[in-house]
């Protein structure tokens, strides 16, 4: 275990310790949302909407309690449960489930049966699977450039969700309270895409510092993959300094992803369809 990083230049954001402890409050929010799905009326919602939300709540609560950073295997708590491999398995399940939930909402609200909207909704699911392949590739090979392609995939699928929502918004008069979900899609799309541009620049900078190009495919030996698997399973580096965690951009990502915005979004979907 390494000692806590000292503040440099006196900046309060140099050490993430207080923020990582406060992140645990997000576990309470997620567990509250999860408990609501076990009783009526939420428990009677279409399982294709309910189960993905439950998966997201459970995994998000776990990640609030045991946050980590895939790059360089950085963890807050040095415990086997903080393993990069375990977290990524759970995150893969949660992300595919959540995007499927979003795509299902689009199809349910597509009252005019616009074919291209249905195609976009399924493309979102395909795109999140592709992003999972890139992030797993980054973890197992150590190639930081693959994180850029993972995040680019998220930009594409969020943009697709926003475009489809804009088209469906024309029928807001007949959608009733479900119109709120389209509004959330649009607002999140604008905010997320602005944030993601900063995040993509971060991924590019990290790859270049590692001497890599953005070429997504490269020859990698099986020995390197086996070593990446071993490191993801067993190697943990406890750090709390801002640089190790990726700075304020990653801090905002953690707060929004599994402590506040995404769980609240999934909960709102369940709430609307339970009415």
Written description of the protein model:
The chain is mainly alpha-helical and 275 residues long. It has one domain. Helix content is 70%, strand content 2%. Strands 1-2-3 form a three-stranded mixed β-sheet, with no helix packed on it. Strand 1 (68-69) and strand 2 (74-75) form a beta hairpin. Helix 4 (84-109) packs parallel to helix 6. The chain starts with 16 loop residues before the first helix and ends with a helix. The model is unreliable at 1-12 (pLDDT under 50).
Q: How would you briefly describe this protein structure?
A:
This protein is 70% helix and 2% strand.
How many domain regions? Answer: 1
Q: How many β-strands, per DSSP?
A: 3
Q: Structural class of the helix and strand makeup?
A: mainly alpha
Could you give the distance between the termini?
50 Å
Secondary-structure element string? HHHEEHHHHHHEHHH
As a percent range, the share of helical residues equals 55-70%
Give the strand content.
under 5%
Side by side, the strands of the main sheet go 1-2-3
- Main sheet record: 3 strands, mixed
Q: Secondary-structure blueprint of this entry?
A:
Blueprint: H1 17-22, H2 25-36, H3 47-65, E1 68-69, E2 74-75, H4 84-109, H5 115-141, H6 145-168, H7 172-175, H8 179-209, H9 222-234, E3 237-238, H10 242-245, H11 247-259, H12 261-273
Parallel strand pairs: 2-3
Antiparallel strand pairs: 1-2
Helix pairs in contact: 2-3, 3-4, 3-11, 3-12, 4-5, 4-6, 5-6, 6-8
């Amino acid at each position: 275990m390494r000692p806590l990083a000292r503040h440099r230049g006196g900046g309060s954001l140099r050490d993430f310790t207080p923020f990582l402890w406060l992140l645990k409050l997000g576990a309470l929010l997620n567990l509250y949302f999860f408990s609501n799905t076990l009783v009526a009326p939420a428990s009677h919602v279409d399982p294709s909407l309910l189960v993905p939300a439950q998966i997201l709540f459970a995994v998000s609560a776990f990640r609030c309690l045991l946050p980590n950073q895939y790059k360089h295997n950085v963890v807050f708590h040095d415990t086997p449960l903080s393993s990069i491999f375990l977290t990524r398995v759970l995150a893969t399940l949660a992300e595919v489930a959540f995007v499927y939930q979003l795509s299902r909402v689009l199809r349910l609200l597509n009252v005019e049966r616009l074919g291209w909207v249905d195609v976009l909704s399924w493309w979102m699911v395909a795109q999140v699977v592709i992003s999972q392949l890139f992030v797993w590739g980054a973890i197992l090979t150590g190639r930081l450039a693959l994180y850029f392609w993972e995040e680019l995939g998220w930009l594409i699928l969020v943009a697709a969700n926003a475009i489809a929502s804009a088209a469906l918004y024309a029928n807001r008069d007949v959608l009733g309270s479900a119109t709120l979900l389209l509004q959330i899609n649009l607002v999140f799309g604008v905010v997320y895409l602005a944030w993601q541009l900063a995040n993509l620049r971060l991924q590019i900078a990290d790859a270049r510092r590692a001497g890599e190009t953005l070429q997504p495919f490269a020859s990698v030996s099986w020995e390197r993959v086996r070593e990446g698997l071993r490191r993801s399973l067993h190697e943990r580096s406890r750090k709390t300094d801002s640089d190790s965690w990726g700075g304020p951009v990653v801090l905002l990502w953690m707060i929004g992803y599994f402590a506040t915005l995404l769980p609240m979004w999934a909960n709102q979907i369940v709430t609307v369809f339970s009415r």
